[in-house]
C-alpha cells in the first residue's frame, strides 16, 4: 500500500503573497524525499496542500495518478506529523494513537452505543495497533499519560505513532526530530529508514542537514515558495544556488546548532 | 509488542462501580417513600437529567452548544402524545418520540454542523422560537391552549400510575447514561473528543468531523425526545408554554454546573438545579411576591450559577468534587 505522489504547478497565496508558487514535484512510490529550505520558504504550506489542510489556489495533487486536491483531508489516506505538535488534549497518549486507527476501522455510533460485536472487534484491533505504534516510536512507557503533558519532542513522536496507526499510503513529516535528544533522534532516524524499507512513500522536512542528507533518497529545495533545486543529497549539497539560499558555505546554517546535538523547534 | 494491552481508561473502575450501584439502589428505593408533590419533582428531575446527558455529550465531547434542546423535548412530547390522542397505542407513541426528535435534528443539523463556532447555538435557539410560535398556531396540536386528554402510558396492559412514571423515567435516564458512557469510550467517541481539541489533526487521522458531530447532535436530540415522550404521558397535558427557552437554558446550565465531559455531571447538575429551583419557587410564590418573581429569580440564579461556575469551577461540580475527594490521600 504505497503510492506515487505527483504535485503539479501548485500555488497558494496569503493576502497576495505567495507562500507556495508553481511547485511541481514527483515522488515515486517508496521514496523518502526531503524538502528543505530557509524559514518561511513554504515547506509547511506545501505539506498542508498535499495533506488537505489547505486548499490550493491552482494546481493539482495526485496519488498514483488519482487527483485528490478537492478531497477533504480525512479521505486522502495521508499520515501527517505537524510541525506544531497537534495532539488531542484531555486524552492519554494511548487514546491519541487509537484515534489514528480511525481510518482503518469502521465501528460507528450504533455499534458503540449498543456494544455490538463489531465494536468489540474493532476496539481490540485498535488497541493492538495503537500499542504497536506507540512502541515503535518509543513511547510505550507514556501510554497512560495525558498527551498534553508530554515534552514537545515526544508530542511529535506521538503524532508519528498516530499517523502510522492509520496505515497511511503517504507520510508527511514536518520537522519530526525537533525537540528530541540525540539518542531519540537516532531512534527516529532508524524508524524512518525502516518505514521507507517497508515501502512507505515519505516526505520529510528537517532543518538538521546531516539528518536529512543521511536519510533522504532525494532532496527538493524550496526558497520563497519556489523549487530552486531537486536532486540526490550529493547534487543538492554541490548546488551553488542552494548554498547561497540555504546551506551556506559551511553546509550548515549559521543559526542552527550543530547537527546531531539538540534540535530546535521551528 | 510489549506486555498486555492496557485499558483505555483505567481510573477508579471499581470505586465507580460501587458508587453507581449504591446510587442506583438508593434512587430505586426512593420513589415509594416520596410524598406525591416530591415524586413529581423526582420524575421531572430524571427527565431533565436525561436531556442534560445529551446536552453534555454535545457540549463536552463535540464542542457544540445547543440553546434549543427544549425543542427536541417538545418534539418528542408531541410526537408521543398526538398519535396516542388519536388512539395509537401509547408505547408506540413513546417509541416515536426519539425518532421524531432525531429526524428533526438531522434536518436541522446537516446544513449547520459544517459551520463552526456558535452557529449551532444560534440556530437551535431560533428553531425553538419558531417551533413555539408554530405550535401556538397549530390547532391540530392543541394550539396555544394546549393538547389535552393524553392517555396514560400503558405497558403490557398495565396503565402506569405515578410510581410507574418514576421507574419509567429512571429507566430512560439509565439508558441515556449507559449509551453516553458507551459512546465516550469508543471509536466514534474518541474521534469526537479528538476533534474538540484539534479539528485539523482529527481530520488528518481520517475523522469525518461533520458527520460525527451530526451523529452526536442527533443522539442528543433523541435523548431529549424520549424524555419528552415520558413527560407527555406523565403530565397528560402539553402546551407550547411547557417548553420555554428558559428550559433550554436550564439544560445548558445543568450540564455546565455538573461538569462537561463527565458522565455523572448531568445527573449532579440536574439535581442541584432542580432542587434550587424548588426553593426559589417556594420563595417566589410567597404572598406579596409579584407574578414574575419565580421566572425572574430562576433567570437570575442561572446567570449567577453560570458565572460562579466559570470563575471558580470551570470544569463543573463533578470534577471539582473528585479532586477534593482525592486530596487527603
Ligand atoms: N495561514 C497563513 N496565513 C498567512 N500567511 C501564512 C500562513 N501560513 C504560512 N504563511 C506564510 O507563508 C510563508 C511560508 O510559510 P511556511 O510555514 O510554509 O514556511 P516553512 O518553510 O514551513 O518555514 P519554517 O521553516 O519556519 O517552518 C511564510 O511567509 C508564512 O508567513
Ligand atoms: Mg514549517
Automatic annotation (TrEMBL), chain A:
InterPro entries: AAA+_ATPase, ABC_AA/LPS_Transport, ABC_transporter-like_ATP-bd, BCA_ABC_TP_C, P-loop_NTPase. The keyword Zinc-finger does not apply. GO terms for molecular function: ATP binding; ATP hydrolysis activity. One of its GO terms (cellular component) is plasma membrane. Residues 5-249 form the ABC transporter domain. The keyword Ubl conjugation does not apply. It holds the Pfam family BCA_ABC_TP_C. Transmembrane segments: none annotated. Keywords: ATP-binding, Nucleotide-binding, Transport. PANTHER family: ABC TRANSPORTER ATP-BINDING PROTEIN, CONSERVED COMPONENT OF ABC TRANSPORTER FOR NATURAL AMINO ACIDS-RELATED. This is Amino acid/amide ABC transporter ATP-binding protein 1 (HAAT family). It comes from Actinoplanes xinjiangensis. The lineage of its organism: Bacteria, Bacillati, Actinomycetota, Actinomycetes, Micromonosporales.
UniProtKB/TrEMBL annotation, chain B:
InterPro entries: ABC_transp_permease (IPR001851), LivM-like (IPR043428). It is a multi-pass membrane protein. The keyword NAD does not apply. It holds the Pfam family BPD_transp_2. GO terms for molecular function: branched-chain amino acid transmembrane transporter activity. Keywords: Cell membrane, Membrane, Transmembrane, Transmembrane helix. Its main location: membrane. GO terms for cellular component: plasma membrane. The keyword GTP-binding does not apply. The chain crosses the membrane at residues 15-33, 39-58, 94-113, 120-145, 165-184, 214-235, 296-313. It is found in: Cell membrane. Signal peptide: none annotated. This is Amino acid/amide ABC transporter membrane protein 2 (HAAT family). The lineage of its organism: Bacteria, Bacillati, Actinomycetota, Actinomycetes, Micromonosporales.
Amino acid at each position: 500500500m504505497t503510492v506515487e505522489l505527483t504535485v503539479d504547478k501548485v500555488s497558494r497565496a496569503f493576502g497576495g503573497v505567495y507562500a507556495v508558487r508553481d511547485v511541481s514535484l514527483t515522488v515515486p512510490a517508496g521514496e523518502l524525499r526531503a524538502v528543505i529550505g530557509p524559514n518561511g520558504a513554504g515547506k509547511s504550506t506545501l505539506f498542508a496542500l498535499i495533506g488537505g489542510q489547505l486548499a490550493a489556489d491552482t494546481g493539482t495533487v495526485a496519488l498514483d495518478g488519482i487527483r485528490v486536491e478537492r478531497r477533504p483531508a480525512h479521505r486522502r489516506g495521508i499520515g501527517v506529523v505537524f510541525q506544531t505538535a497537534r495532539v488531542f488534549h484531555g486524552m492519554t497518549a494511548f487514546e491519541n494513537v487509537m484515534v489514528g486507527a480511525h481510518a482503518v476501522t469502521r465501528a460507528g455510533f450504533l455499534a458503540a452505543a449498543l456494544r455490538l460485536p463489531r465494536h468489540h472487534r474493532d476496539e481490540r484491533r485498535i488497541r493492538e495497533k495503537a500499542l504497536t505504534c506507540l512502541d515503535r516510536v518509543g513511547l510505550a512507557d507514556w501510554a497512560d499519560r495525558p498527551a498534553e503533558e508530554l515534552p514537545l519532542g515526544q508530542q511529535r513522536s506521538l503524532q508519528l505513532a498516530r499517523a502510522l496507526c492509520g496505515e497511511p499510503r503517504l507520510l508527511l513529516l514536518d520537522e519530526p526530530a525537533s525537540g528530541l535528544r540525540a539518542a531519540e533522534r537516532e531512534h527516529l532516524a532508524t524508524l524512518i529508514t525502516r518505514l521507507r524499507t517497508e515501502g512507505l512513500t515519505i516526505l520529510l522536512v528537517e532543518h538538521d542537514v546531516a539528518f536529512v542528507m543521511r536519510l533522504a533518497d532525494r532532496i527538493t529545495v524550496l526558497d520563497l515558495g519556489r523549487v530552486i533545486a531537486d536532486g540526490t543529497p550529493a547534487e543538492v549539497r554541490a548546488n551553488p544556488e542552494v548554498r547561497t539560499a540555504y546551506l551556506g558555505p559551511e553546509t550548515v546554517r549559521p543559526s542552527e546548532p550543530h547537527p546531531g546535538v539538540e534540535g530546535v523547534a521551528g | 509488542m510489549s506486555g498486555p494491552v492496557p485499558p483505555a481508561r483505567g481510573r477508579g473502575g471499581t470505586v465507580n462501580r460501587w458508587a453507581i450501584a449504591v446510587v442506583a439502589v438508593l434512587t430505586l428505593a426512593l420513589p415509594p417513600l416520596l410524598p406525591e408533590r416530591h415524586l413529581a419533582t423526582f420524575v421531572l428531575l430524571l427527565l431533565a437529567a436525561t436531556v442534560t446527558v445529551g446536552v453534555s455529550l454535545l457540549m463536552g465531547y463535540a464542542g457544540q452548544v445547543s440553546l434549543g434542546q427544549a425543542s427536541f423535548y417538545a418534539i418528542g412530547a408531541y410526537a408521543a402524545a398526538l398519535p396516542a390522542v388519536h388512539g395509537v397505542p401509547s408505547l408506540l407513541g413513546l417509541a416515536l418520540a426519539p425518532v421524531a426528535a432525531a429526524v428533526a435534528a438531522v434536518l436541522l443539523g446537516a446544513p449547520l454542523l459544517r459551520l463552526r463556532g456558535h452557529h449551532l447555538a444560534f440556530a437551535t435557539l431560533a428553531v425553538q422560537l419558531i417551533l413555539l410560535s408554530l405550535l401556538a398556531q397549530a390547532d391540530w396540536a392543541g394550539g396555544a391552549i394546549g393538547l389535552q386528554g393524553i392517555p396514560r402510558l400503558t405497558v403490557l396492559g398495565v396503565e402506569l400510575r405515578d410510581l410507574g412514571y418514576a421507574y419509567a423515567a429512571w429507566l430512560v435516564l439509565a439508558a441515556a447514561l449507559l449509551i453516553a458512557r458507551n459512546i465516550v469510550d469508543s471509536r466514534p467517541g474518541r474521534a469526537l473528543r479528538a476533534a474538540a481539541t484539534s479539528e485539523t489533526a482529527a481530520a488528518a487521522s481520517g475523522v469525518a468531523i461533520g458527520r460525527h458531530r451530526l451523529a452526536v447532535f442527533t443522539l442528543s436530540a433523541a435523548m431529549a425526545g424520549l424524555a419528552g415522550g415520558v413527560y407527555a404521558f406523565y403530565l397528560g397535558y402539553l402546551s407550547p408554554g411547557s417548553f420555554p427557552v428558559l428550559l433550554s437554558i436550564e439544560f445548558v446550565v445543568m450540564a455546565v454546573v455538573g461538569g462537561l465531559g463527565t458522565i455523572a455531571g448531568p445527573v449532579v447538575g440536574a439535581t442541584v438545579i432542580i432542587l434550587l429551583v424548588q426553593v426559589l419557587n417556594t420563595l417566589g410564590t410567597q404572598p406579596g411576591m409579584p407574578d414574575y418573581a419565580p421566572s425572574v429569580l430562576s433567570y437570575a440564579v442561572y446567570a449567577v450559577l453560570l458565572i460562579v461556575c466559570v470563575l471558580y469551577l470551570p470544569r463543573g461540580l463533578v470534577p471539582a468534587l473528585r479532586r477534593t475527594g482525592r486530596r487527603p490521600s
